[in-house]
Specification:
The complex is a heterodimer of chains A (399) and B (298). Chain A is of the alpha/beta class and 399 residues long. Chain A has helices spanning 2-24, 52-67, 91-103, 116-128, 159-172, 186-201, 220-229, 240-253, 270-275, 277-280, 298-309, 317-335, 339-348, and strands spanning 35-41, 71-73, 76-78, 80-86, 109-110, 133-135, 151-153, 177-183, 205-212, 233-237, 259-262, 284-286, 350-353, 356-361, 364-365, 372-376, 379-384. Chain A is 43% helix and 20% strand. In chain A, the strands form 6 sheets. A 4-stranded parallel β-sheet of chain A has the order 9-8-10-11, sandwiched between helices. Chain B has 298 residues and is an all-alpha fold. Chain B has a single domain (2-123, 139-297), classed as ABC transporter involved in vitamin B12 uptake, BtuC, CATH 1.10.3470. The longest helix of chain B is centred in the first third of the chain and has 30 residues, at 64-93. Classes of the chains: A alpha/beta (399), B mainly alpha (298). The A-B interface holds A 43-46, 48-52, 184, 210-213, 215-222, 224-225, 228, 240-241, 244-245, 248, 251-254, 268, 270, 273-276, 279 and B 4, 7, 9-10, 12-13, 16-17, 117-118, 121, 125-132, 135, 137, 144-146, 149, 218-220, 222-225, 228, 259-261, 263-264, 267-269, 271-272.
Amino acid sequence: MKSSRMSRRSLVSGLFALAAMVAAAGAPAQADKPLRIGFSMARTGMLANATPSQLNTYELWKEQVNARGGMNVGGVKRKVEFVIYDDQSKPEQAVRIYEKLITDDKVDLLLAPWGTPFHIAIAPVVEKYKFPLVGNTAASVSLREVKPGYIWFTTSAIPDRIGVELTAFLKAQGVKSVVVLANVLPFTKEIKNFLEPELKKAGIDIKLSSEYPPDIKDMTAMLTQAKQANVDAVLALAYPGDSVLYAKQAKELGVNSPFQFIAIGPSDAFFPKAVGAASAEGVVTIAHWAPRPEWKGSQAFYDAYVKKFGEDPDFLNSALAWMSLEILEAAVAKNGLNKEKIRAMISTETFETINGKVKFNGVQNVITPTAFVQYQKGRLQIVWPASIATGRYEPKKGW
Amino acid sequence: MIDTLLSGQLLFSALVTGSLYALTALGLNLVYGTMRVLNVAHGDLVMLGAYAAFWAFTLWGISPLLAAPAVALIGAALGYAVYRGIFQRLLAAGAGHAGRIEGNSLLLFFGLSIIVQNAVALAFTPNNRAYAYLDEVVRIGSLSMTGNRIAALAIAGTTCIAVALFLRRSVIGLAMRAVIERREAAYVVGVDVDLVQLASFAIGFASAALAGVLMSMLEQFSPFSGFPFTIAGFIVIILGGLGNVMAGLLAALVLGVIETYGVALTSANLRSVLLYGCFVGALLLFPNGLFARRSVRA
């Protein structure tokens, strides 16, 4: 039994080697068989619509790396191939997949799945097998409770810091009164819980605070009240699904507060297409990246993404995915596939990424500031904080 | 608060929501009524209609209002193909075993639903899709309405009324009602049951596709956003009375009113509690549907 399994495996690896040779025909000879990198992604199910910007980024990276002759593995270039499974939008499925990727597929490296619950679900798996994984599209204060070691979280969009920074941003714009509308899903609910005490501390009047369910179909009642409150800022703590509903109905009802914040959704290219460029103009959202001369490679990443996919990358999720790849690439270039050395390097060193320097303390990125972006002339610009701003905040002039 | 309730703005919203529910539920109810078969892939037809309108608009700049009749026709053709290609065989295989047909058809539609969702995801990626069309705001007094919502209300409303008239006035419509109310009796007096079933499939699929076109102007969608429409359709037809098409239309409006006014009076967070609460309450008090005619069930 064992021998037949072994021979099948050697046959399979032989085929891979053959495939690599065929792929490399005409190019300089490859030093080794392809590097297999595995991950799970919600390709089907209720979250599938949120994942393409991350998967696209992975694919773009693979294409570029292979065009350069392969990924630098401790000085040896190896072509990259992906082992992808669909987790059907179920975190428990992702757990099984990462176990399988490590023990059965025996992949060389791992990339992150999409979303906070998935990152938290697979953290014990990578810990158990001591397999380093650089996370990307996860943001929650509960990430800090994940045992530090083999997983790191690149984002700075953590709800408690969003609460502090958004309040400072509002105060700097002279905002005195706000309406808070929050989707009850975990991320936005968490933001609300940290934001409202900060607003009160800063003396900003919360004229109306309302929660709504993710399957909301009509916001007329809530937005009529928001309009009557006549505030300086509407803070719509929305998810991608309802961000469009909010924008469309705010336009219909004329909710024209000059500061319009929509938490998640507008950083993705679908948003201006869905609501129209004129309506998207001036909307503020969460992201800590934009092409910036100081951030090496940021413009090149933007251009390459637009060229390949014909639309803007998601300024939050695509950028995070790319950062995690850059960090992994740097660690593997230096340490080859030695997982302990990779872990040690990611845990201690500072990395250059398209989002500037990144350094982890425990599981968390401690350098990248929490930031906000705004649609200006159809492009997202960082408008807060001033230290990394690419544009100046402009009040929104209607929808 | 009272101003909001009386402003007309909520009434408009309730009508838009209700009319889309009505159009979605209409097709589901026709197919159920004539064949006692629950189409759990109904919401996916709505999703397909939305994609058709989306591509027509983004690739060729065709207005969804112009595309709507064409998409509805394609929907009807699809209904025809599914009935002739798959369903007739199922009916023949299960002849005389109503229970088996119901069970098999549930599995069949469930399978179709999964195939359609994943085929669309494969072909068009699971990206969110939406477009901005007719989104100028029309103001009448204190009432402000977006053009696309007015259009959706007008088209969904007109279609529902047209189908209602068709069921009351035309020969096939009357035959459909006959099959819905007394299947065996209709058969005995010479109603072409096969033709009636085919017509209900075609109209059912067409109205779902049309609902998809209208929905695509208002919300964003992905290959997996059909299911909530199936659920909404189920609630409406169970509230109204299974197979009772006219009552379904009224039930859809009731649901729209609950959804808008109920939320305005309480909290948006209670939306599901209100919807399902009314649903369960109605089932307990009126097990045959809110508007069941006693003579039919006697």
